[in-house]
Amino acid sequence: MRFFELPPQLGEDLKAFGQQVADFKSGTLSGVKFKGLRVAHGVYEQRQEGTFMIRLRCPGGALSPEQLVRAAEVSAQYGAPQMAVTTRGGLQLSFVDLENVMTVVHSLAEVGLSGRAGGGNTVRNMMAPHDAGVDPDEVFDVSPYLFELTTRMVAEPDSLNLPRKFKVAFSGKKSDPGKVKLTCLGFWAKEREGSQGFEVWVAGGTGSSVKPGHLLLDWIPEHRVYYVTKALKRMFDQHGNRRQRSKAKIKWLYEKLGKQEFERLFFYYYAMEQQEPGKELVLKPLENRAELSADLAAERPVDEHAFSLWRKRNVRHQKQAGLFQVRLPLRHGNLQNSDAKALGQLAAKFGQNSLRLSAEQNAYLRNIPEAHLGTLFNALQPLSSLFLRAEPELLGNMVTCTGAATCSLGMTQSRPALEAVQKALLASDLDLDALGDLKLYSSGCPNACGNNHVGDIGYFGKTGKVGQDIYPAYMIQIGSKLDAETIQVARRIASVPAKDLPAFTVDFLKGWNDKKAQWPVIRDYLNADEAVEDLLNLAASFTDAVPAASEDASYYTDWGDEQRFTLLKGRKAECSAGLFDMIEVDFETIEQATKLLEAGLRGSERKLHLYRLASSAAHSLLVTRGVEAFSDEEIFDAFSEHFIGAGLVPKLYQEPVDLAKVKDLDALDKWAGEVINLGEHMKKLYEAMDDSLRFNLEQLQGLDLVEEKEPETKAEAEAPTAQPESRADVYKDFRGVGCPMNFVKTKIALAAMPSGQTLEVLLDDGQPIINVPESVKLEGHEILAQDQTADGHWSVLILKA
User: Which of 694, 130, 93, 715 is nearest to 364 (CA)?
Assistant: First the structure.
């Protein structure tokens, strides 16, 4: 059984992809280009060089037993010992060597599995509740719409080259729309006068900036699902922001256009689509019924007491009489290959439509007759991946992303941290069953891949700071609410050190336990102001007690790590959200110190705060240059090199920086005005950066930088457009312009040019020719030629992306 059909052109696509892999291996295809090509096939590079993760599409979490067995077999042969269920109900294979990637994708395609559009700027894996079709409370089963829409979308070429990812969700639940109100396009099942249809929501989004969706259509008949999707996709394709990745999602398009213009554009495209009739989805019937193998016997459970507890925690009635759905809880979604193969073979005994994956990173079996629950219980006992089946429901519902262990964007080790929380809860005297299906979700950074924003309790990784020492920490969120009337994401309240996260969680839940008489339902408590006050006080008791690194180094080592906590982890910084969080800590110190100094602080305290201001100003943006420094000497030396020496900070600040480096506080006091101005300068420099840690050129031109006081070169003043002797559409002479202003000026020139035009720039030898071409390539443009002239300068020919 296949729940959706792979596109007919997949064979040709994989042939082309295979050639791209070969070209990359031979060095004829750049890493930047290869990344853009491979992510559209769901192939992502991992931290371990030369290894890749392959993300498979499973719409609504559906895959057949045969598909799970095949995935387990290729993972065992070519990948890691385990696979992982994603927070969109997909399946991921990890640590596949590059030379095996094509073997894996071809083998999976044979059984109808593919990573096509599993990543990149594409139509991503479509979501629905894992119990769609069997939930007693649903309006109708949304699965057939989801599967057929997936088949249609993955076959359309424009689904693979959008401004940004395009996410679609369905829900058939009566009182809970699920995530349809927090996604690009959401369909919520409704009935009107006996007909099936949908309420349509648009422009919701999660990530580091959560945006609730907007009601677009209060009703469409079911045959209009494709037309709505196609119209919004075409509108996004043609009007989305392709220049600025951080503002490219549909949620930002809605914010830019406003409700009236967004709806005007949508209905224009919607009307155009409906001029071509006959594109309605052709739904295939999907039945949920028992389909037992002839050799499957009904068994008594081997342990009646354990069976009773397991049934209470994991088994739920379906709307089909006499049938049950069984939760198979997985820690972090991890499923050992051997267990996955056994589970697929077991699921086959209950039929082809018996298996689902969920956004909680768990697996589910459905259509299980009551007489065979004992059979299933016995068969699951040997599967080590399912050890949480014997634990309270809360533990199996905890969700986390991979965190810094494998993700290039991760700040903290979210998985080991959550495991420490689980251990602390089990060791406590809390009645965990009383917490029911409480959802505790965690992410390793503010990007929220672990869905912390929709958890009853959410964590996301960030940094804390004592002096100049940073430590891993977590922001705590509480009180999400998504129902028929409300869209409320969890509120960010306060942060706690990562080391104290387990103790904090236990103490916070104990606080509710002491108030159960007033708040019998914990979700009601989490949405109350009293919980906010309790959390603030508890978090402060942990944060205020963080020792200096010299007193207790354990606070400065993350869960699962042995080395001191660092954001860079040996690589160039990539996570702007996490870095910005760290930077803000320095700017808070700068702001506080500035206020005290300007208020007339005197004596030794004045000198101490002046030094703190200088140190925080010097440290604040080092990480954006790929530098982490811990000692005072390292901080000031790195600042002198990467900011003053690079021309980003005027040289007049060099002397107070040198005085601060040697802690000559008396002499530094005479430079108080300059130190305060340095803090302001660094804030302006920070504001002139975009979300990718590159400069916003218009703002940067307004900064008082020494290099910018130089007049434009003659070539710039006299030849704003192409010169007759130039081989390009636009010509610029940046000889004599130092780093990084030469790249800034190059980017200004490119910003004014249409895509596809060429720019020729002249650069000095040395750092300019090393830095500018690489920076241009990181912006997505192509270097067509790079030649040294007879006088020693360089000509660089650039094709604008």
Answer: 130
